[in-house]
Specification:
about 400 residues, alpha/beta, Enolase-like, domain 1, TIM Barrel, about 20% strand, binds D-gluconic acid, binds magnesium ion, Mandel_Rmase/mucon_lact_enz_CS, D-mannonate dehydratase
């Protein structure tokens, strides 16, 4: 089999997506997600100008070789743009291989290790009562694990809380929106939030919380310790992770489990965190971390240290990535949990897929390959439009981590 063509499909069915389609001389094609939220066209150009011409004529079954060719062959290593581009190619090749062999991708990764992948939903509310309402609504829908975010009293905007009654969606069209942030008010409020939620929903539901990189290590240590009575499943991205050593300090002060890595793009971003057991869950995803090929190696390394996966799964990761994550999560032994932020009905229509949700778990389905399609005609009705993630400032105007 030979790769005969590779092209990108850019569309915006309620949000922007960049999708790679790789075609072969046997008529089988594969899809890969190349979406890097807020910086989409950089990946599109990297693929179109530098990567796709090198694919033509290659054997799509040689997935490892093509990965190494693109990673080592560029000479310039790592970085979100490069690694998202490599991911898109890698995932499209796994899709082709599954289709060619007539089997779901999870079978190529070792086969089923479990019946389904435990997923967590997002509950959020502008204030405490509405956050609790949202948690209850998700329990009614069958979720067993729920991330809780809430407007912090006395602040104008909080991470993870939508404006009005629209669902939370991180990117907005136009120039970046700016939000204001107060660490002091946040740290005082969050323990009350989880105390109230636990009281209302009992001990059994898994509760998660995303700090979104906003604290210093010692502040994160204080938060983790103050949340211990409510036994969270995890505290996510408690501090920025460029300095992996920062997690040592948090770890030394709290037994609240820690997840990080959604902005990582290489095994090396996670290496010290894993081998020192400073984290419990690694969130680096297939789309931004170099594809299934790279994540399999990272997950296997993490398994040795009893670190489990908890992949990023926000709406800016397309249904192609969601499917890939579910095949991956069904197969590997050290799967922990998968984020599930459902796409809008329109996005789901543009990307028909075989994955399903039932009673707290998701399943990738039994279709050969990834089990995701793209309706190109429908996609063409929703052209790409520039959008940005917000910028956060402290109350005195200093730019901080969003
Ligand atoms: C999450 C994330 C997202 C990100 C978004 C950025 O845990 O789901 O933090 O909401 O902010 O994916 O593009
Ligand atoms: Mg997050």
């Amino acid at each position: 089999m030979k790769i005969t063509a590779a092209r990108l499909i850019l569309c915006s069915p309620d949000r922007n997506f960049v999708t790679l389609r790789v075609e072969t001389d046997e008529g089988i094609y594969g899809l890969g997600d190349a979406t890097l939220n807020g910086r989409e066209l950089a990946v599109a150009a990297y693929l179109e100008e530098h990567v796709l011409p090198c694919l033509i004529g290659r054997d799509p079954f040689a997935i490892e070789d093509i990965w190494q060719y693109l990673y080592r062959g560029a000479y310039w290593r790592r970085g979100p743009v490069t690694m998202t581009a490599i991911s898109a190619v890698d995932v499209a090749l796994w899709d082709i291989k599954g289709k060619a062999l007539g089997t779901p991708v999870y079978n190529l990764l070792g086969g089923k290790s479990r019946q389904g992948a435990l997923v967590y939903a997002h509950a959020n509310g502008a204030d405490l009562p509405s956050a609790i309402e949202s948690v209850k609504k998700h329990i009614d829908e069958g979720y067993l694990a729920i991330r809780v975010q809430c407007g912090v009293p006395g602040t104008l905007s909080s991470y993870g809380v939508p404006k009005g009654d629209k669902p939370y969606e991180p990117a907005e069209r136009g120039l970046p929106a700016e939000s204001l942030w107060s660490t002091e008010k946040y740290l005082n409020f969050v323990p009350h939030l989880f105390e109230a939620v636990r009281k209302e929903v009992g001990e059994d539901i898994h509760l998660l919380h995303d700090v979104h990189h906003r604290l210093t290590p010692i502040e994160a240590a204080r938060l983790g310790r103050s949340l211990e009575p409510y036994h969270l499943f995890w505290m996510e991205d408690p501090t920025p992770a460029e300095n992996q050593d920062a997690f040592r300090l948090i770890r030394e002060h709290t037994v609240t489990p820690i997840a990080t890595g959604e902005v990582f793009n290489s095994f090396w971003d996670a290496h010290d965190l894993i081998r020192n057991q400073w984290i419990d869950y690694i969130r680096m995803t297939i789309v931004h971390g170099g594809g299934i090929t790279a994540l399999k190696k990272t997950a296997d390394f993490a398994a040795i240290y009893q670190v489990r996966t908890g992949f990023h799964g926000a709406t800016d990761l397309s249904p192609v990535t969601m499917a890939a994550a579910l095949h991956f999560g069904l197969a590997i032994h050290n799967f922990g949990i998968q984020e599930h932020m459902p796409h809008t009905p329109l996005t789901d229509q543009v990307f028909p897929h075989s994955y399903t949700f039932e009673a707290g778990y998701m399943h990738p389905g039994e279709a050969p390959g990834l089990g995701v399609e793209i309706d190109e005609k429908l996609a063409a009705q929703f052209p790409y439009a520039r959008a940005y993630l917000p910028i956060a400032r402290k109350l005195d105007g200093t730019v901080t981590d969003w």
